[in-house]
Structures are given as structure tokens and as C-alpha cells.
Amino acid sequence: MNTHHQLFAPQALLPSGWAQNVLLRWDAQGRYTSIETGVDAARCAGVAQASGPVLPGMPNLHSHAFQRGFAGLSEFRGQAQDSFWSWRNLMYRFAARLGPQHLEAIATWLYIEMLEAGYTSVCEFHYLHHQPDGQAYAPDGELSQALLRAAQTAGIGMTLLPVLYQNSGFGGQPPNEGQKRFIRSTDNMLRLLESLAPACSAQGAALGLAPHSLRAVAPQALQEAVQGLHALNAQAPVHIHIAEQMAEVNACVAWSGQRPVAWLLDHMPVDARWCLVHATHMDEAEYAAAAASQAVAGLCPLTEANLGDGIFDLPLWQASNGRWGIGSDSHIGVNAAEELMMLEYSQRLQSQQRNVAASAQQPHVGSHMLLAAVQGGAQASGRAVAGLAVGQQADLVVLDGQHLALAGLPAAEQLDAHVFASSRSSAVASVWVGGQCRVSGGSHPLHHSAQRGFVAARTELLQEP
């Protein structure tokens, strides 16, 4: 019996709920081969013992890595009424100066932050493709490769989603100056995907496509790109920004006569391969139809709050058995527990009720939300990371049972305390990805060196030209 491929957990959150005295086993490829409950602890001499409750690793289903470099730098009023659109102008100015070495340093630190915060994989919605003047790098996928290298260095699972971006607005409006680093033709994007496939496969990463939004990709190009993607890989994930802002919804109605989600469902083969990122502003018919499609709603509560996007109606979505997951998007916060807390609190403020995201089957809010987010995040990732179950990748998080917020509590209450009562201090003790321990004692081995690299890159980018 290989004790290096096992972990004994006094309490573990399985897909069916909390279980006691759980022995987790995985193979040399990092996949669970057995999960036993009610195990006699005496049988597990020599097996690593979890120091607190064991949780499934959280997939981060929406990330723009480069935006971590200017998190916190847009919190000032630059005009009479700031909005998402004024924030976007600041983001474009920052993106215009970024080089491959900056991106790799920022992403490496970000992915280490994610691991230390309980994320074990990331879906990278990657739209910074070209040199500052809009010309292609040689090789063309240099910035994509920088992200793959960063993920491999950190040891986080990766779903790479190169972004198709062609227009500045509905109806095929030409791109503006700030978008020239993003632009690719449909054929060029499909060639990029073909060229990236071997590198992704070599490190166990999934490869999909992210049509940026309906305003950035016209109908024919959207259809051709998705068809081309699925000719390469029939199961590849498709992620799209949709209905994030009311200005976008109104512009879509003016262009097509339909709201964005309704248009997408009527004109594209939306199914379980799709992730509808944000989907904040839907009417009741859109909520029901989008949930029925089995697509995942990609929710980014901290970024959505930071940008003033609006509030997703989680009870309405869950009433239709809708699937959802969480992402850190612009990385104004990098903390899986805080994303869950923000999502629940937004629902409480909207409904003037408490414990909105709980269910009859799982009355503990933290447990219900974490299990739902892991399932939805795994589906959106296109990877076998759906929790503590045989056949899934051995991605797990061990909480510190002696953390002040958790000590002495039962396991379900410990998770609730981790989400709602840890006072912005981390209760994450260790994190495993594919059966390998990446975070121990709350810290990644490359924490300090990656942090220095991040600070150096950000400092250089913020210097006046």
C-alpha cells in the first residue's frame, strides 16, 4: 500500500455531504481510485493525516490574469459618474504596455495566490494576444505559452480559453485603438488553437474557446468559430461574457430585438459545454431557458460588485436547477471563500432574507454553495475536477482545524466559519492538486520569489513612459 498516495480525513465533504473518517486514495496519475468512509483510524498508521476538514478543490472558472497587475488602482473617481466602461478604459491603458515577461510574472504570482486561497484549477479567459502595435508575436501564441508556463510553475490545473475578439460593438463595429492587441480573424484563432493543443496536452491542461461577447463577435464568426472548435475537439468548453451590464443588454435589443441571453439561446447550440459568464441581467424566461440548456452560469461576485454590474438572481436560477460556479475575474479579490460570501450576501441584500443559498438537502450555506460551485466549475473547466469522488482528479483543500474561527466546531460549522467568519485571515492549511501537495502550512514554496517577481513587473509597468 503506497502511503504517499493516501490521505486520512477525520471529516471530508463528499458530493453526497459530510462524511467521517474518510480514507482518500489516488493513483500515480493523481486520480482518485477509492474513497472509503467510516474507516478505523488505527488502520491508517503511516498515512498522512489531515489537520482539519477536507474540501474538494475549487475550480476558478473565470480569470483575466493580467488584470491582477492593476487591482486596486482604479478605485478613484475619474469622471462625474464612474462605471464599468470608465474602468475598461483604464484597463486598456494598462494592457497596452504588458509584455510576455510581465504577463508570466503576474500570472505566476496570481496562480500561487489562487492555490493558497483554495482554488486548485483556473479557466483563463485570455484575450491579450499581440504586441502593443497589434502585430503578432513570433511565435504567435507567445502570450498563451506564458500563461501555460505560469500555471505549470505554480502547479495549478489549467483550462486555457483564447479569446476571439473582432468588433467594438454590436453590428460589426470596427475595433478601437485600445483593442488592437486582442483582434484575431476566425481562421487565425482556429490555427492558434491547433498550435496550442500539444502544449496543453503535455501538462494536462484543457483547451477551449472564449468568444468574448456578442458585441465583440458577429453572428457568422461566432458560428464558424464554435463549429471549428468542436471539429478539433467535440467536448471543448466555450465561455462567453453575456449580459454583464444593462448598457450591453439595451444595445443588444437595439441591434437584434432580443436580450443577449435570449439571442444566444435562439441562434447558437448552447449546451453543457458552455459557460455564460456573468449572465447578470436576464428576465425570467431567460433564466428558465438558460438553465434548461445545462450551461453553467459563471459568477464573479467580487468583480461584479467592484464594477457595479448588478446582482444575479441565484434563487431563480436554482429553482430551475441551474448550474453555476465562481471565478475571480479581475482579481480585485483572490479568495474562493470570499467569492461565496459575497454571492450569498448579495442575495441577502436583494431579498432581505438570510441563508438564501442553502437547500433542504444541505441546510448549511457554506456546504451547499461549495459543492454547487465545485460541480459547476468542473463542468465549465472541461476537466475531471468535480470533487472527492472516484475517477476525479485528487484536488483537495485541508482547512486548519485550529484556526481561531474554526477551532472546536463541527465540520459543517467550520466550513461556514471559513466562508463567513474568518475575518479575512486564511483558514487554508494545505492544498493538493492531482495528488501533489502544492501548499503546506498555508504557503506555496514559491510564495516569496513569485511575489517579488510580481512587484517588479507591476512597478515597471506603472513607470511613466
From TrEMBL:
This is Formimidoylglutamate deiminase. Residues 54-436 form the Amidohydrolase-related domain. Its cofactor is Zn(2+). It is an enzyme of class 3 (hydrolase). Residues 7-42 form the Formimidoylglutamate deiminase N-terminal domain. Its EC number is 3.5.3.13. Gene3D superfamilies: Metal-dependent hydrolases, Urease, subunit C, domain 1. It comes from Comamonas piscis. Pfam families: Amidohydro_1, HutF_N. GO terms for molecular function: deaminase activity; formimidoylglutamate deiminase activity; metal ion binding. Keywords: Hydrolase, Metal-binding, Zinc. One of its GO terms (cellular component) is cytosol.
